[in-house]
Each structure stands twice: as C-alpha cells, then as structure tokens.
Amino acid sequence: MKLREIIETLQATIVVNSHDQEMAVELACGSDLMSDVLSRLKPDALLLTGLITPQSVYTAEMADVRVVCYVRGKKPEAETVRLAEERGLVLLSTTLPMYESCGRLYRKGLKGVSET
Amino acid sequence: MTRTLKEIVEALKLAVSTRGDLLSSRTVTGGYAGDMLSDVLAHARKGQVWVTLQTHTNIVAVASSKELCGIIVVNGRTPEAATLQKAEQEHIPILVSPLSSYDVVARLCELGVTNREGV
Amino acid sequence: MKDSNVNGTLQIARTQEMIYELRVQQAMTKQVITVEPENTMADVSRVLGENRHSGMPVMKGEEMVGIVSVEDLVRSFREGNSSQPVKQWMSKNVTTLYADEPLVHAVQKFERHGYGRFPVIDRKTKRLVGILTKVDIIRCLLQHLEIDFQDLEIRRYIPREWFSELDCDRATLSLRYHIDGANFEKAGEVSSKLKRNLQTLGLAPDVVRRIAIASFEAELNLVIFTEGGELAARVEPGRVTVTVVDNGPGIPDVELAMQPGYSTAPDWVRELGFGAGMGLPNIKNCTNELKLESKVGEGTKLQFTVFT
Ligand SMILES: Nc1ncnc2c1ncn2[C@@H]1O[C@H](COP(=O)(O)OP(=O)(O)OP(=O)(O)O)[C@@H](O)[C@H]1O
Ligand SMILES: [Mg+2]
Predict the structure, then answer these.
(1) CA–CA distance, B117 with B119 (Å, rounded to integer)
(2) Average pLDDT, chain A
(3) How far is C289 from C123, CA to CA, in rounded Å?
(4) Distance, CA of C126 to CA of C90 (rounded, Å)
(5) Average pLDDT in the A50-69 region?
(6) Is any ligand 1 atom within 6 A of the Cβ of residue C8?
(7) Which end of chain B, N or C, is less packed with Cβ atoms under 10 Å?
(8) Residue A61 and residue C212: Cβ atoms within 8 Å?
C-alpha cells in the first residue's frame, strides 16, 4: 500500500514527512509495547501505536521501519518529532482509535505481520 | 450486527482459557485494542471485547471496572495463572489467539465488530 | 573480555582499551608536506590547496619552527597580504606527539586542543617523522578491519562524538558507551549511535538491524532495571560481539527471565511502552550466540554475537 493511501484511509495528519507519498508500505503492526513490536516487525512495515515517547522512534529506527502512525489523536512529544526528522522517518497522527485504524487498513488490503 | 462471544470464538478459532459457559450469553457491542491500561481505562466502552497482548492480572481489574465483555490475548501468549484465577472470579472470559493484534482486529472487523469513535 | 566478571564495568573498560596498544607511528602519515619560514602565505595557500590539507609544519632545515594552518592563512588574507612570509603568521608553540606514544594519547590531545593535526617527532632525535590527523586514526582503525572505504566518505563522517567512541587494537575495533539507569528520555540513544556507526563501517543491513534490535533491548533493560552500565561492541572480521554489563540488582532466575512473556516490570513501565517480557527472547532470536550471567546483588553480564 502506498503511503498516500494510508494517510487517506486513516484521515491522518502528517507530523513529519521526509518521504515521497508514493513510498510502498508492505505490512502493518499495531502495538503499544515496543519489544512486542520488535519481535515481529519487518523492515518497511507501518507501526501503529499509542506510544508517543522518543522510544517509538528509536524502535522504528532499530527495525528499519520508516512510517509510524500515532492513534487516537495522540501527538508525539517535541523530542520525538526532532528525532524522527533527524532520521528521515514519517510520523502520522490519526484521530481513529487503534482498533478502527487496523480494521480500515486491512479492508484496504494492508496485511498484518501474522500472515507472512 | 451484534455478535456473541461464542460466535467470535468459533469464527476466529480462539482458545478459551476460562470457563466456557458465559460465552453464548455475552453480546459484543464493539471492540477496543490497546496495551496501555491507562488508555483502556480512559477510552474503552462497556460491552466491548478488548484485544491486547497484556497477560498481567491487572487486565482483569480493568476489564471488570469498564464492564468489558471479554479479553482476547494475542500473539499466542499464555495468561498468567493468577490472571486466569481472577478472571474466573470476576466472570471475565479470557480467549487467546496466535495472531497479532492487527490481524485479530482485522478479523473482528470482518465479522462486523467495530469501533466507530473518533470517526 | 575473557576474564571480565559480572560486576566488571571497569573490567570491560580496561580490556576494551585496546587503543592503548596501537602506536602513533602506525597511524601517522610519513610523507609530510612542509614549508619554510621564508615562503610566502601565497605559497602556503597553493600547497594546502593542491594537497587538500588544512595545515602543515614549518621547517628550517631539519628543525621544526612552527605550524601553519588554514586559519592562519585566512587571518593573513584578512589582516595582511599574501606576499608576507610564513614566519610572520605561523604558530610557534607547536604541540607534538611522540611516534611511540599510544594512540589513545593522540585521541586525548585532539579532544583537549581541538587542533586538526599534530606533527609527530622521534622521542630521541626530536626530528619530525610524520603527521597525524583524525582521518589518519580512523583510516588506521578501518584498515585493521580490512574494510573498504571511500576517502570522501570518511572525511565527511568525523563527528567528534563518533571519534571519541573509538577504541582499537590490531585486528578489532571497539565502540564503547555508557548507559544511564532510569533515564527514559535518553533510552535508545546508545543503540541508535551504535547502529549508525555499524552502518558507516559497511556491515550488511540485516546484520546491523539484528545487532541494533538486540542492543536496544539490552539498553532498555539497563534503563529500567538497573542503575546503568556499559555497552561495548567489538567488531572483528566475521562477527560483531556486544557485551552489556551492569552493577545490579541481578536476575534471580536467568532461565525464567529468558522465557517469552516473563516480566517483572511494574505498570508504569508498561505505560512507557515496555514490559512485554519479550526483550531477552528478542535478543536470542536476533543473535547467533548469547550468554547471560547474573548474580543477585552483584550484577548482570549479557554478551551476544552476530556473525557478519
Ligand atoms: N539487566 C538486568 N538486571 C536485572 N534484571 C533484569 C535485567 N534484564 C532483564 N531483567 C529481568 O528479566 C526480565 C525479562 O526481561 P525482558 O527484557 O525479556 O522483558 P522486560 O524487560 O520485562 O519486558 P520487555 O523487554 O518486553 O520490554 C525483566 O522483567 C527483569 O525482571
Ligand atoms: Mg526488556
């Protein structure tokens, strides 16, 4: 799925964007606990999370994930934004809860990590 | 469309970790996904089924105080014995799926179990 | 590292200080371009430009009488003119290194003085035998690793902090970091730095990713459960080994701690995104070798290796 379609599907606002919106995202993972994310996240996946601390960005960085979307209207902390800019990540924010975000993306064809 | 927990267990092939007799009487009004107890306490609604990877006993206290209809533990994690014991006492069914949160929610949505808040 | 024990933060520091073993003469450039005191600043400008250097020693016969740098050149252009002699603009107090000094002294001097280069002299004869820049040091370390590099890449990549993290011996390169306990704001910073440095060394993306994830998990455990400690990565041909040591409280049952889902983290930690009990299992999955030793009341030593 293209980054542009993700933004449309989640009606997300762009907090940090250093990438082309045609960038492809292959998979999605939704979690608030970062070690869980790291145990299943593949490179170039989308991370959906309610965790807005710098560790959300560090987690994405470690796993070679380039797009993080904060759910339920959460806005990342200033330090989180700074780190993401420095690392060339994309940060999005959607007002939808985690549940609805997962459901919508799946309906649009974005697969989860369990299916690979 | 409202579903009972029993229908969901069957459709998603969930393992039932607590007594099974409550399942057919529990109607599911929607779903909530989250791993932070504060978040669930603040935003989950009565009657929703809660999808989480947490297995700690505190999940039962949260589900019980928010009157959630049940908990689906993801990633095939084994709920702690103390959690199951407390769940029996509080009549909170605990179900387990080998899938990730994202995939469990995806399937619940396909069954018509939604969460329309913030939409 | 063989002999370091569980409460051996200092032990790691000692055994990892292999930069002590390498001498200045192994890293320095032996062909030194020099000028004479009577040369003009225009000459200096031309020679520095031609050689893409930023400074050079001033020699009167066999004797070094000063050093002249780009900064001096700029000053002379601004305040004087380019036909004036070098001796009028050079710095006369030259800080030098001895050829047989350990490289760590050079590293310390670079940090202390902020100069771009040091002339190297022989301890007995006091004659100029070479010149040492930070690029020379990094080049030397990388050559010991037999890693190909582009001169330009290295020139671009000399942030001070990276430089100060470097240790080395003849065959390996070590990166060492301190991890603060209980400092959530910075939790992840060390692994982030490590990851970028491994990328710079040209290791395969998958290898770097696995080391990064394992290091991040170890770093977070130190932040959450301990008062802090040290993380050291040792890069050698064929493998990268990371050793993480803290001074307590220790793990009562290591086997139990390794089980997926086992966690003693309190709720506030879970509110900050950790405590799934997946950290140690993740480290195991990402690495080729893993050793976890712990003594309650003393500390924990975690060591893992990824084959490259
Ligand atoms: N360096 C350490 N010192 C003391 N105890 C530790 C240390 N590392 C791990 N532990 C103990 O081992 C347990 C399991 O660690 P692990 O990293 O697998 O999970 P966690 O840190 O609790 O959660 P997660 O890593 O998923 O965020 C911890 O809960 C803690 O009790
Ligand atoms: Mg951990």
Answers:
(1) 5
(2) 94
(3) 45
(4) 20
(5) 97
(6) no
(7) N
(8) yes
Most B CBs within 10 Å, among C264, C270, C282, C285, to test the B interface: C270
Q: Which of A1, A30, A2, A10 shows the shortest CA–CA distance to A94?
A: A10
Are B101 and B71 a contacting pair, CB within 8 Å? no
**Ordered domains of chain B (ranges, CATH):** 3-110 (3.40.1390.20)
Structure tokens at C111: 């940090």
CATH architecture label of C159-307: 2-Layer Sandwich (3.30)
pLDDT at C198: 83
Q: Structural domain boundaries of chain C?
A: 2-141, 159-307
pLDDT (0 to 100) of residue C135: 76
Integer CA distances (angstroms), B54 to A105, B31, B77, in order: 23, 16, 8
Query: Cβ of A86 under 8 Å from any chain C Cβ?
Result: no
CATH class of A3-115: alpha beta
Atom of ligand 1 nearest to the CA of C262: 14
Q: Smallest Cβ distance to A63: which of C209, C274, C279?
A: C209
In a mutational test of the pocket of ligand 1, which residue from C184, C191, C221 has the highest number of ligand atoms less than 8 Å from its CB? C221
* Separation of alpha carbons A82 and A40, rounded Å: 26
DSSP three-state, residue C174? strand
So where are chain A's domains? 3-115
**Touching check for B102 and chain A: CB below 8 Å?**
yes
Q: Which atom of ligand 1 is nearest to the CA of C263?
A: 29
What is the model's pLDDT at position B115? 86
CA-only gyration radius of chain B, Å: 13
- CA of C270, closest CA in chain B: separation in Å? 7
Instruction: Locate the ligand 1 atom nearest the alpha carbon of residue C275 and give its number.
Output: 23
CB contact under 8 A, B36 and C260: no
CATH for C2-141 is 3.10.580.10
How far is the C-alpha of C97 from the C-alpha of C123, rounded, in Å?
Answer: 9
**pLDDT exceeds 50 at position C118:** yes
Give the total residue count for chain A.
116
Residue C235 corresponds to which amino acid? V
